[in-house]
Fold this sequence. Notes:
The complex is a heterodimer.
Chain A: H1 3-18, H2 24-34, H3 37-68, H4 71-91, H5 105-118, H6 126-130, H7 142-180, H8 184-188, H9 192-211
Helix pairs in contact in A: 1-7, 2-3, 2-7, 3-5, 3-7, 4-9
Chain B: H1 14-19, E1 25-31, E2 40-45, E3 56-61, E4 73-74, E5 94-98, E6 105-109, E7 118-123, H2 125-132, E8 134-142, E9 147-154, E10 163-167, E11 174-177, E12 191-194, E13 199-202, H3 208-211, H4 217-221, E14 228-233, E15 238-244, E16 249-257, E17 266-273, E18 279-287, E19 290-299, E20 302-303, E21 318-319, E22 323-328, E23 334-339, E24 344-349, E25 357-363, E26 388-390, E27 396-400, H5 405-411, E28 420-426, E29 429-432, E30 447-453
Antiparallel strand pairs in B: 1-2, 1-30, 2-3, 4-5, 5-6, 6-7, 8-9, 9-10, 10-11, 12-13, 13-14, 14-15, 16-17, 17-18, 18-19, 20-21, 22-23, 23-24, 24-25, 26-27, 27-28, 28-29
Amino acid sequence: MNDGSLAALVALGAFHGLNPAMGWLFAVARGLQERSRSLVLQSLPAIAAGHAASVGAVAVLVALTRSVVATRAVAIGGGAVLVGFGLWRLLSRRHFRWVGMRISLWQLAGWSFLMSSVHGAGLMLLPVLTSSGTAPAGHDHGLASSSGSALSTGVFVTAVHTLSMFAVAGVIAVLVYEVVGLAVLRRAWFDLDRLWAVALIGAGTITAFTAW
Amino acid sequence: MPLWKPDPTFYASPRDAASAPPEKLAYVAAFDRAAEKPDAIAVLDVDPGSASYGSVVGWTELPYLGDELHHFGWNACSSALCPGSPHPHVERRYLIVPGLRSSRVYVIDTKDDPTAPKIVKTLEPDELAKRAGYSRPHTVHCGPEGLYLTALGGANGEDGPGGIALLDHTSFEVLGRWEVDRGPQHFAYDAWWHIAHDVLVASEWGTPSMIEDGVVGELLLGREYGHSLNFFDLRKRKHVQTVDLGDEHQMVLELRPAHDPTKLYGFAGVVVSVEDLSASVWVWHRDGDRWAATKVITIPAEPADPDALPPVIRPFGAVPPLVTDIDLSVDDQWLYVSCWGTGELKRYDVSDPFHPVEAGSVRIGGIVRRTPHPADPGRPLAGGPQMVEVSRDGERVYVTNSLYGSWDDQFYPDGVGAWMAKLDSTPDGFSFDERFFPSGDDFRGRRPHQTRLQGGDASSDSYCYP
């Protein structure tokens, strides 16, 4: 894993943490509802866990596929999938539906997993996952060990990314809850869904091109 | 195309809603009782600084006859900011307008020219019937899963049960019946929610056969109209509990939950008690782990000379107040109560919801009194304060005078007329704005019903953040 990939992982984590729809807004809402900062803080790990599960599934899947299939094919195929998904996100008028505000921390983690998956959070990491820096070491050790190291790569990528997402979402949630207030939404809540879709298409294109 | 920033008329909290810019236009549903001319959405200028203040500045007629426009609502509102499924970049631009008699639903776009709304889609009655099993659509609320549309009647030959249909947020197609398990609920009317608690409340009027040709005396005296509140789990779509107010309390209509999402109480209006013709307002609230309702306001009937009364109430020798609408200000402090029979609009301070304090009252119209508007003191008025709408900042209150075609004719047999009034409401005073009195020919022979205010009002939005 080179510095560039690490920086990219952190940056994408921050981008995901920044998006109100990825969880910090829910944490703030729960806190405001009960007038309790600790409820804001309690909600964040559950939200991060759901996000990590969604990102991790993609990361591990890509790493495992790369250990048995030519890296280039994975990158090109994955890039194409990503561009298609991004275009769908851009053009679709559907929005994620979840009914319910009174939910347990487990359900909150479930919500976060669904929200991240529907938005393709894990897919966005594809350029990092397929770049040569993350290739599993020692490809002559056979399948078992390479899938072992693939797994650890996937876990590492997920951990770095989620930690960054968690830190950014946590800082924003506490700031909004304690200082800024929700009026900030009207000024600062840009349509991240569209930006997000553009990011997916960009990530897909980069992935496919660098492998070509 | 979605917006880049949230629609400025979505407010995170009730406080934000109250402090946002005031409305400049009001949309009023107006219907032709004779069904000879199409119903219309009238657009009124409510900007006091404007030259055309208080007049009808826009008029959109429907393509059909006999819809009987009644209540209506926005396609999107502040609930779009809720954190579970946020979609803040849609726009509050379409009015979803049901025909209570025809069961058609119109989607009317107010964006390009707010004073000339355009019909962009018409849902035919069979779409509501086929997909949801309902007819006589009534109340519209923009909510967490889509648009919630209550309906009084069943469909496909069934009179009931009535209930709630769910419509898609963007395509406005009927998605289906909302209830997964309706329990014992059969009658429908209004429905709203405590959005931050996943609770839906529904009220009861009667099925189409019980209302469409007027109030049926035998059913009323037999205590057969609705008299209960029904609570549902908003998430699971399941009936949780029925709270029966007592069968003497006939017709539980308008529901006004507290706007503060941390609160779990709300107000419900009852049209008439068959024991003494009084009307009442109830507060629903939690009692341990159950729902309960407590009567907090009773408005007595006013004795009258039987000769001055229409046949429907002549035997009683009294005018029932007939509380047909109530409205709660966005700050949850003031409750406005329409007494359509006696011709009075009452204001209560409900800072303590269990102990309302009357804090103002105005008279206009009424079955016997026929009180004129101060702008035209020589003209007796029929009808009474009926649909009441409060601006988000709580300072302006709008009332219209028609209840429902066939019922208008019963209680005001010599004609209900057509008028709309506005009151200025401050902590110290509650009185008519004499500059605002669109009436008679202003409504082109139609009768005005519900008012919706530009940018949302006290009964249009729900908030996920306190």
